[in-house]
């Protein structure tokens, strides 16, 4: 929780090596706590799809600009509009697209910013398959900071998307199977808690023949690496999608059922771990906390890997996608790059996976896989 604290002026001056004469202002800094400003859902007459706005700071009389986080679910976008004094847009998550009346189309990503000058008709939003959040700094002129116009049609939206496609060559994605593309995308969105994008990815996977039980198993596989909350939320999303599709009259393949849990999961898991790593696993960390390796061997590589439906190669591809979609997992990601190659996955396939997830989720995910490949190849 944010809080304001005060220390004496004398103490501040002593630290800064200044005298009292150096301060000649009564102005004070102002803290705007997280979520202290208004939030609202984007109204239907100004947005297409699901959009949420969280104001970060308000405009002031002598500082005529405000800031807000705006989150667009897959396929969502603004109506046409302009800003009398312009606007900066900085992507904080995902990929954004913006287009102007004169045909300029820009696709921009996490950490990239776009300046829209004053009086330029434009729209901006998410791509069809994943959500996007950007931080906007909007200036005002007089009492106006935006002038709304008609909604963007589906034809205009898809024409802008088509204009960006020449920047992406998707042919080389065929180096990994369509099944892997769908499963890893589902796992990546689930690991990053992007449930809106996960719903889209699940529908696409089912439309292309991925079975319900393959998707279930991919999301069960998430829990040893990402935790129960991520796994349970993702499984709930899958259940909701399956129920909706059934109500719409769609028939999706259920697929094979999982195996029963092994009677001696510790022995089996130790064998699987040794095979994946290429040698028995030991080291200072497991000397310090040996039960951690026991849990890995007995439960992860024993119980979870023994469930079937997905083989060891499938599971390592999923693990790479999951770990790359979470922060603070670089050592584990490097280890699983090696384990994936020990199952027969090639470095080229992993590089293609990096490109694929970097384009379909966020550039950060792809870059983390690429960096892990480079680190393990040295």
UniProtKB/TrEMBL annotation:
The keyword Signal applies. CDD domains: cupin_HNL-like. Residues 162-236, 295-351 form the Carboxymuconolactone decarboxylase-like domain. This is Carboxymuconolactone decarboxylase family protein. Keywords: Signal. Residues 69-132 form the Cupin type-2 domain. InterPro entries: AhpD-like (IPR029032), CMD-like (IPR003779), Cupin_2 (IPR013096), HNL-like_cupin (IPR047263), RmlC-like_jellyroll (IPR014710), RmlC_Cupin_sf (IPR011051). Residues 1-24 form the signal peptide. Pfam families: CMD, Cupin_2. The keyword DNA repair does not apply. SUPFAM superfamilies: AhpD-like, RmlC-like cupins.
């Amino acid at each position: 929780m944010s809080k304001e604290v005060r220390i004496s002026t004398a103490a501040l001056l002593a630290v800064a090596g200044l005298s009292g004469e150096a301060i000649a202002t009564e102005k004070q800094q102002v803290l705007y706590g997280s979520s202290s400003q208004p939030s609202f859902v984007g109204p239907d007459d100004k947005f297409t799809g699901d959009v949420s706005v969280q104001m970060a700071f308000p405009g002031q009389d002598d500082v005529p600009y405000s800031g807000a986080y705006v989150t667009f679910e897959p396929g969502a976008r603004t109506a046409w509009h302009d800003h009398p004094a312009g606007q900066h847009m900085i992507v904080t998550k995902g990929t954004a697209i913006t287009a102007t009346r004169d045909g300029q189309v820009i696709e921009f990503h996490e950490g990239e910013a776009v300046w829209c000058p004053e009086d330029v008709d434009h729209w901006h939003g998410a791509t069809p398959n994943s959500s996007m959040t950007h931080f906007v700094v909007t200036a005002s002129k007089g009492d106006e900071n935006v002038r709304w116009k008609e909604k963007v049609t589906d034809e205009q939206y898809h024409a802008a998307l088509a204009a960006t496609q020449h920047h992406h060559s998707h042919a080389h994605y065929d180096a990994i199977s369509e099944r892997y593309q769908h499963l890893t995308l589902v796992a990546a969105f689930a690991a990053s808690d992007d449930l809106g994008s996960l719903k889209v990815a699940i529908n696409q996977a089912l439309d292309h023949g991925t079975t319900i039980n393959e998707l279930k198993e991919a999301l069960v596989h998430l829990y040893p690496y990402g935790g129960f909350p991520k796994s349970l939320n993702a499984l709930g999303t899958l259940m909701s999608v399956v129920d909706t599709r059934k109500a719409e009259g769609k028939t999706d393949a259920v697929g094979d059922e999982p195996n029963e849990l092994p009677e001696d999961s510790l022995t089996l898991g130790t064998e699987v771990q040794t095979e994946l790593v290429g040698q028995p696993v030991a080291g200072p960390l497991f000397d310090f906390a040996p039960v951690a390796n026991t849990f890995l061997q007995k439960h992860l590589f024993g119980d979870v890997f023994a469930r079937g439906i997905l083989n060891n190669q499938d599971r390592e591809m999923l693990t790479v996608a999951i770990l790359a979609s979470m922060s603070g997992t670089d050592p584990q990601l490097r280890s699983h790059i090696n384990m994936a190659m020990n199952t027969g996955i090639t470095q080229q396939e992993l590089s293609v996976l990096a490109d694929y997830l970097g384009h379909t989720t966020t550039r950060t995910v792809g870059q983390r896989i690429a960096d892990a490949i480079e680190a393990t190849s040295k």
